[in-house]
Amino acid sequence: MTAPSDPGVDARLQTLTLTQPDDWHLHLRDGAALQAVLPFTARQFGRAIVMPNLRPPVTTAAQAVAYRQRILAALASSEQDGRQLPFEPLMTLYLTDNTAPDEVKRAREAGVVAFKLYPAGATTNSDAGVTDLLGRCRATLEGMQREGMLLLVHGEVTDAEIDLFDREAVFIDRVMRPLRRDYPALKVVFEHITTRDAAQYVAQAGPQTAATITAHHLLYNRNAIFTGGLRPHYYCLPVLKREVHRLALVEAATSGSPKFFLGTDSAPHATALKEQSVCGAGCFTAPAALELYAEAFEAAGALHLLEGFASHHGADFYGLPRNRSSVTLQREPWTVPEQLPFGDATIKPLRAGETLRWKLQP
Ligand code: NCD
Ligand code: ZN
Q1: What global pTM score does this model have?
Q2: Which of 93, 210, 308, 355 shows the smallest number of beta carbons within 10 Å?
Q3: Active site residue 97
Q4: Domains of the chain
Q5: What's the pLDDT at 123?
Q6: Which residue owns the Cα nearest ligand 1 atom 9?
Q7: How far is the CA of 237 from the centre of ligand 1 (A)?
Q8: For 240-259, what is each residue's pLDDT tens digit?
């Protein structure tokens, strides 16, 4: 991790009050899992972009409306201190080779804000994803550009012959550049970027291109997956990269550029599924999301830039109003729980059992 440029300044700071942040990339799952994880997000964030990679995926406006209702019902039944948390789920549709161009208009009318591109086979529940974006989805992309619908991109090629650690960089040349050339007015979010290549690409792209960055990609490089043994809870997709890439992500997130904003990619999987011979991809960061970002920004001597990244840039890019309420972080050590209930199972949050130095105030 980099040393704070002026540790004295940050160490004196005891509280940090921010406009309430939003999470621009989140997996909430469904059913009992949804019920278990939603309160962690709702107590921190005003809104979240909800990923549509359920089984089966959320591919139609009608399915998104129904999923939104299930999220709101889960929220209502998880009141805290007798009050319902004022959280707004922002819905997305899962793009497939067969998404009907008409679905874009229906989605916009239903309040859906974006489509999510999963290259087929790239990650958890992506089998129904797109096999050839610029070959099969042109009419839908035109509709999205026309209707002002955003495209959120899981930016990795899936070819077996491309090294796993190079898949994001190759995606930029094979998909992002042609996509930007052919649909210059489409707003595109390069989700959970993990490489210097992607950070540089987004920084130099036009104003219609932005990126989310996770807390774990700001805090860890790929050594975290292998420290003292194989550590499944640090395995996510796109996978953690070398230190040079982590440093580039920290630089982008703390640059003050409105093109970079918070997206946790909190992706809950039951402990039993993570701790087995084939482990699912995803880090469950929701219970300490804002605290983890604060730690990363503080280490870079950039706590004063956290608010823009967490609370302003995303809303501005999506064309939504910034939140009016605020949240406060306090310098107060606390220990992340070892396990949390997850329906009939349990789940381990990232940093389980470890002490964090910032704590969100209730
Ligand atoms: C996500 C999941 O579990 O749904 N996993 C992950 O590692 N991030 C899928 C994704 O966003 O790639
Ligand atoms: Zn994700």
Answers
A1: 0.95
A2: 355
A3: no
A4: 7-360 (3.20.20.140)
A5: 79
A6: 124
A7: 6
A8: 999 999 999 999 999 999 99
